Amino acid sequence: MAQTRRFRDVKQKKPAIQKKKKTKEKPSNQTEALDYASIGSKAKAFITDMFMLMMPIMYLIVYLVFGSLQAFSEHKAAGWAYMLIPNFIIVFLFFWRSGQTPGCRAYEIKLVDSKTGQKAHPLAIALRYYFELISMVTVIGMMMAWFRKDRKCLHDLLSGTVLVKAEPQKER
Which of 3, 40, 69, 99 could form a disulfide bond with 110, CB atoms 3.0-4.6 angstroms apart? Predict the structure, then answer.
């Protein structure tokens, strides 16, 4: 590899300075080797999933089950239960099958076990969904990512999972 020299050094006929190559040390454990997803990518994937997965479910529940928005507002607790259960099933199946929901796939991130870096256990996926609901309600659980180096939220810590950057998918 040819090293480029500054014009000033060439003009003054200074010898080329050999820079020492920095070698990356291999991480001592698997968790340091994980390439964590950015907060922005996680937020965009979440918003994409809400529009692609939750909005159709919401529409069906509000207008087919309850008949109108007014009837839904009278039975909010039941309505949210009717929405969250199918959403949980769909999100669980996406994460269990490929580790990616449509939003995660769009932003090239993947759900893995935080200790091994492999596919997450089904129980961890289920716990992550419910802990994520708690994190959203408390807001502090979601804000933890801004203060942590590994960008984990409360639901990531409690479930033992993490979103990492995935290899780009090939076009079919």
Answer: 99
Mapped onto helix, strand or coil, the DSSP state of residue 105 is helix
Largest CA distance in the chain: 85
CA-to-CA distance for 135 and 46, rounded, in angstroms? Answer: 14
Distance CA 98, CA 73 (A): 36
Q: When comparing pLDDT for 166 and 91, which is higher? A: 91
**Which residue is listed with tokens 């006929």?**
13
In tens, the pLDDT along 8-24 reads 777 777 776 666 555 55
Distances in Å between the Cα of 39 and the Cα atoms of 46, 53, 88, 106, 109 are: 11, 21, 22, 15, 11
Q: Domain ranges in the chain? A: 34-165
